[in-house]
């Protein structure tokens, strides 16, 4: 596991410095706000608007996981291959398992932060009615398990393919 912590820290710092990652988190939160407005507007004849709101959030999370698997996780190792830095990492003494854990864990943490930002909104669905805490926890556990599976499928595709494009295509094919 030599270099895993260093690689993980480096990847998390790079992610924290990217405007694109922050814009993605903010846009996801704003989209949930739009879902809240839609749930409120369509709740005229519905006794439980929280159920509709939580359903929209759950579908959004599922779509984000598939999108992340096809683009974000599938390029974990292929980026290093395309930039020619994979050999340098191996030369620095980073083991193959350490490389896999360092690259995939940082990306998994980044995606989990997006879901963590959505948690207060999901809990708001309880006060709107129609959803219980147990249902929210069950859906979140199921989505987290699906996220781990998608991350590993993306990582496998990233290891097997030389370029990012085919790796993304294989992940999409495997998910569908």
Short description:
With 176 residues, the protein is mainly α. Helix content is 83%, strand content 0%. The chain has eight helices and no strands.
Write the topology of this structure.
Layout: H1 4-17, H2 19-41, H3 49-72, H4 78-83, H5 86-91, H6 96-128, H7 133-160, H8 164-175
Helix pairs in contact: 1-6, 2-3, 2-6, 3-6, 3-7, 3-8, 6-7, 7-8
What does this 3D model show about the protein?
- This protein has 176 residues and is mostly helical.
- Helices cover 83% and strands 0% of the residues.
- It is built from 8 helices and no strands.
- The protein is elongated, with a radius of gyration of 18 Å.
- 26% of the residues are buried.
- The mean pLDDT is 82.
The percentage of residues in β strands lies in under 5%
Helix count, DSSP H or I runs of 4 or more residues: 8
H/E element order = HHHHHHHH
Q: What is the CA-based Rg, rounded?
A: 18 Å
The whole-number mean of residue pLDDT values reads 82
Beginning-to-end CA distance, first to last residue: 34 Å
Query: Structural class of the secondary elements?
Result: mainly alpha
* Number of separate strands: 0
Assign an overall shape: elongated
* Overall helicity: over 70%
């Amino acid at each position: 596991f030599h270099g895993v912590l260093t690689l993980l820290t480096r990847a998390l710092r790079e992610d924290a410095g990217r405007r694109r990652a922050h814009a993605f988190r903010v846009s996801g939160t704003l989209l949930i706000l739009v879902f809240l407005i839609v749930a409120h507007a369509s709740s005229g004849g519905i006794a439980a608007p929280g159920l509709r709101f939580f359903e929209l959030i759950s579908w959004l999370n599922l779509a984000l996981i598939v999108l992340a698997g096809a683009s974000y996780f599938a390029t974990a190792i292929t980026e290093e291959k395309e930039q020619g830095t994979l050999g340098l990492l191996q030369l620095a003494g980073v083991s193959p398992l350490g490389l896999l854990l360092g690259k995939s864990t940082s990306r998994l943490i980044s995606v989990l932060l997006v879901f963590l930002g959505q948690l207060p909104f999901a809990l708001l669905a309880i006060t709107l009615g129609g959803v219980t805490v147990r249902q929210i926890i069950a859906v979140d556990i199921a989505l987290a398990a699906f996220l781990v599976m998608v991350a590993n499928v993306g990582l496998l595709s990233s290891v097997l393919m030389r370029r990012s494009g085919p790796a993304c295509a294989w992940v999409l094919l495997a998910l569908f």
